[in-house]
Write a structure and sequence with these properties.
heterotetramer, A mainly alpha (210), B alpha/beta (257), C mainly alpha (212), D alpha/beta (283), C: 212 residues, mainly alpha, 2 domains, extended, D: 283 residues, alpha/beta, Rossmann fold, 6-stranded parallel β-sheet
Chain lengths: 210, 257, 212, 283
């Protein structure tokens, strides 16, 4: 049985890559198909998830859940000029919950977790083979210099200021080195493999392998 | 002591210290004792870019990625959007923004309010300035790339959550010759921003720009709080590393309480 | 006055009512906080999910505006997009969503393949990005270029033939310098994030919604 | 003399302002050529890939392998190379394969991988391998349920046949009957480590190169047996099993060879051009 969706998938892939030549109605077709599919999928999955999540209202009598149900729809008031402020309430809840979750998470994982990691790294400087010791020392120094790049209020005057100025410059170089290394390493990961896979998928489809 | 959950005391103390230092720094700034900050090129570039867009008669574009308003980077993006919308309304520059579903409502409110404040509410309408190209990472990216080609923005601002798609949007923007400003805290996004953006806000610089974007001295002065936080952190780390070198794990034990 | 109360002060109160219990639940061992935390987080998820209807309304308005443009190849795409979006939703709901294999097949072949093709474009964009950015105009650009170079060749098979130690060297840079740099970025960003949220809580932040 | 200098200015400034479309076209050619004429460049096989190969080789007869992962279709491509090499390796062994998808994309991807490698031509559906239907609810909820009671969670396979009628499930009920868990997905290792590892089921992961470093702690903690490093790991695995019909890893490594030289050349041209232009501007 020939699957009609396989040639459509191939056509979409080729139309998408036509963007490399020029933005044309062909690319636009691929773009719009993708966006419509993504939105459609979000709504389909969302409706089923909402159904399951609101199920306890009638089944177990959890009437408190009616509140978020109403609040969620208040978002639509944004579209009405005079009632726009009503949408502040769902926004306030999302912000309150989201930001609180993020603050507690970031203090624990990034602030404390990474600081602890830095201190442990420092502990590896003594009592280890010289290669490990050197790497650890370098890591600690680079981290401290990079951190000094993020200090905003020190003026580059006076003795302290000049020391800071030097640290700031070095910190900038350290950050750029780190970013450069990341960028160089990154591209093989996702990019090229998917590019080759897409080409190969087109070839396979033409050969009828699926 | 039993009130605290295990291993959360240090967490709580750090939050309290950051809270108090932010409060104090803002107090000082209000009393006119705030400190100046070092110039951040990306901040002035935003104003400059909108001016350039007005001269060229091309739109300005802004997006914070697909996150909802509960994400702090998106909130930083919204603060920048507020200023951008005001400037765009003032200079009659068409504004285009793309948001995820969870931030759409907030963005519409901010843009509408900015146009109303500038006395041009008739220029705003829902779905005109604030667009939604689905929450999907690459569907949104494709929509933005197509939009760049059709509308040819003169300024692209990306402040928020960005991952591997940054290379795609960045190149699509460079292709139409837009001035590009980017800022994110995501580890996958920053290196790609470094190679595609004209002006880069690395990590915390994004929050500093969001705080000082209004160029209000009180706001700018409160950035000192962030520096106090980092100074504390630097001292903790240096003491910790020195203690470790001397063979004591005291800092690790303290931070793990 | 009442407008300010309803549109500014009450939303701020709602924000604080959500913010404080969720934050304190993480630090304090109070059973009531735990149930409030779970309930509020559930609410927030539900509200976020419901926001998709606003997204749908927004994009419908956008497409509708596009259909009114009488330019060549403009209104056709507006009509196409509206029809495809709603047809997709109706089809998906009638098939029963994710548990239906017919729906899954369409989803993968249309959305999955579009996504793969879009990600595939990254390879090409890297070429022009490298050509444009990796120019040693100043020392900063030179540093960026040098390190990008080392790790870029570290993965290539010919790198290890030029010098057998290359993969190990690039790995060392990734483990040492990159890790240190991203650690600094993470630590600093966490401070900035908390400071910004505190400013919002204290109503010092000018931009955004919970304004001072 | 002066005329020549003028000519060099135009050459370099022209070279630096070539339309990007040309660069992309050359890149496309350089990617496609090695696909048509594979040079099979030699590269070293990493220890972790070798360990996975040896482990799978020693799997006893009659073992039950579960393949479960989550991720989006496009991102699974990168790990598919190693997964298909794995399928090729177990094709001629007496083992049973249960595909338990944790996302809708892997529900469609893994059966496709099975058909591409020819696994389904050697093995009999229902007796040697089976595809379970997707169960919504997220990995946090369905993985623990799967480990304790497979038939209770998944009522039917992908095609709607009840599990009681499928021969493979006569002796397979819970984690006790699973010999190995294989993950072909983008980011499933954390949930697998949380819910599968406690039952002492060894896990082999085929992960993205971006996550390879990030997930190392799971190996150190003994929760995951070993992982392959993205597409390069896939290429190494393919080399070990003697190439598959998909062969994505090897082909990508070949393409990368030319592609990286191309980028190198471009960067050199860009830098020389910038310097030359600078010099011309000074004079």
């Amino acid at each position: 049985m020939v699957n009609i969706w396989i040639p459509i998938g191939v056509a979409i892939a080729i139309a998408t890559w036509s963007f490399l030549i020029k933005e044309s109605p062909v690319f636009r077709w691929a773009e719009r198909t993708f966006i419509s599919a993504a939105i459609g999928h979000t709504v389909v999955v969302g409706v089923y998830t909402l159904r399951d999540r609101y199920y306890p209202i009638t089944a177990q009598g959890q009437y408190l859940l009616i509140i978020p149900a109403i609040l969620g729809y208040l978002y639509l008031f944004v579209l009405w000029r005079r009632g726009r402020w009503i949408a502040s309430y769902p926004i306030a809840i999302t912000m309150g919950v989201g930001l609180a979750t993020q603050v507690r998470g970031t203090i624990d994982a990034d602030f404390l977790g990474q600081t602890l990691g830095l201190i442990r790294e420092g502990g590896r400087i003594v009592g280890t083979p010289w290669q490990t010791a050197f790497t650890s020392a370098l890591t600690v120094v680079v981290t401290l210099f990079s951190l000094s790049y993020f200090i905003f209020t020190v003026k580059p005057t006076g003795a302290f200021g000049r020391v800071y100025g030097g640290m700031y410059k070095l910190g900038q170089y350290c950050l750029l080195a780190a970013l450069g290394a990341m960028a160089g390493n990154y591209i093989l990961g996702t990019g090229l493999a998917v590019t080759v896979a897409t080409i190969q998928r087109i070839i396979f489809s033409l050969q009828g392998l699926g | 002591m039993s009130v605290f959950l295990r291993g959360r005391i240090a967490d709580f103390l750090i939050f309290v210290v950051l809270f108090v230092s932010t409060w104090l720094a803002t107090r000082l700034a209000r009393m006119g004792k705030g400190r100046e900050i070092r110039p951040i090129p990306a901040l002035d570039a935003i104003y400059e870019g909108i001016g350039r867009a007005a001269e060229m008669g091309r739109p300005a574009f802004m997006t914070p990625g697909a996150g909802d308003v509960g994400r702090a980077p998106v909130v930083a993006g919204l603060a920048i959007l507020d200023v951008m919308a005001t400037q765009c309304a003032k200079l009659d520059v068409p504004l285009l923004t793309v948001f995820g579903q969870g931030a759409l409502g907030a963005a519409e409110m901010i843009v509408a309010e900015a146009y109303r404040r500038e006395g041009k509410p008739e220029l705003y309408s829902p779905g005109k300035q604030v667009l939604f190209f689905s929450g999907d990472q690459y569907a949104r990216t494709a929509g933005e790339a197509g939009l760049f080609q059709r509308e040819k923005p003169a300024l692209n601002v990306f402040v928020g959550d960005f991952y591997s798609e940054m290379l795609y949007i960045g190149e699509a923007g460079a292709r139409v010759g837009a001035m590009q400003i980017g800022g994110t805290i995501q580890q996958l996004g920053i290196p790609l921003m470094a190679i595609t953006m004209d002006y880069l806000m690395i990590g915390e610089e994004m929050f500093a720009v969001a705080a000082s974007i209004t160029r209000d001295p009180v706001q700018t002065g409160s950035i000192m709080a962030q520096d106090v936080g980092k100074m504390i952190l630097l001292s903790i780390s240096i003491i910790g590393v020195i203690a470790m070198l001397l063979g004591s794990k005291i800092m690790i034990d303290l931070l793990s309480t | 006055m009442s407008k300010v109360l309803y549109s500014v002060i009450l939303p701020y109160a709602v924000f604080i009512v959500c913010f404080v219990p969720i934050l304190s639940n993480y630090y304090f061992d109070v059973p009531m906080l735990r149930s409030i935390d779970a309930e509020l987080r559930n609410w927030s998820t539900l509200i976020g999910l419901t926001a998709m209807f606003l997204g749908l309304a927004n994009i419908t308005i956008y497409y509708y505006r596009e259909t009114k443009r009488r330019k060549h190849m403009e209104w056709q795409f507006g009509v196409y997009s509206i029809i495809l979006t709603y047809a997709w939703i109706i089809y998906g709901l009638s098939q029963g969503g994710l548990t239906s294999s017919a729906y899954n097949q369409i989803y993968v072949f249309v959305k999955g393949h579009s996504e793969a093709a879009q990600i595939g474009l990254l390879t090409f964009f890297f070429v022009t990005a490298a050509f444009r950015t990796f120019r040693a105009k100043n020392i900063q650009a030179l540093v960026l270029l040098t390190f990008a170079f080392i790790t870029f060749i570290g993965v290539a098979p010919w790198g290890e033939q030029v010098w057998s130690g290359w993969p190990a060297f690039s790995e060392w840079i990734l483990v040492g310098i990159t890790m240190a740099g991203s650690r600094a970025i993470l630590i600093a960003a966490s401070v900035g994030l908390v400071a910004m949220v505190v400013r919002i809580v204290l109503r010092y932040e000018k931009g955004g919604l919970i304004r001072g | 003399m002066k005329k020549e200098e003028g000519a060099s200015v135009t050459i370099w400034s022209k070279a630096l302002s070539v339309r990007p479309e040309w660069f992309w076209l050359i890149a496309l050619i350089l990617i496609i050529v090695p696909m048509a004429v594979p040079p099979r460049v030699p590269f070293k096989v990493n220890d972790s890939t070798l360990r996975i190969y040896e482990y799978v080789k020693k799997i006893p007869d009659g073992s039950v392998i579960v393949s479960g992962g989550l991720g989006q279709w496009a991102f699974i491509y990168e790990t598919s190379a190693a997964f298909m090499a794995f399928l090729t390796q177990i094709k001629n062994k007496n083992v049973k394969l249960i595909i338990f998808p944790l996302s809708t994309d892997s529900l469609m991807f893994e059966p496709w991988a099975v058909s591409v490698t020819g696994f389904d031509k050697v093995k009999e559906y229902g007796k040697d391998w089976v595809v379970l239907n997707y169960v919504p609810g997220g990995a946090d909820i369905i993985l623990p349920a799967f480990m304790t009671n497979i038939k209770g969670l998944c009522r039917t396979d992908l095609y709607g046949t009840p599990l009681e009628q499928i021969p493979i499930f006569k002796n397979v009920n819970s984690y006790k009957d699973i010999t190995l868990w294989v993950d072909c997905g983008a980011n499933s290792i954390p949930s697998l480590a949380r819910y599968v590892a406690p039952y002492k089921v060894p896990i082999i992961g085929f992960v993205h190169s971006a996550y390879y470093g990030m997930f190392q702690p799971y190996i150190a903690a003994g929760q995951v047996y070993e992982m392959t490093n993205g597409i390069r790991g896939g290429g190494e695995y393919e080399k070990l099993v003697g190439y598959t019909s998909w062969n994505l890893g090897t082909i990508t490594m070949d393409s990368y060879q030319l592609y990286s030289i191309y980028i190198l050349a471009l960067v050199i041209i860009a830098n020389v051009g910038t310097q030359m232009l600078k010099r011309e501007e000074k004079t």
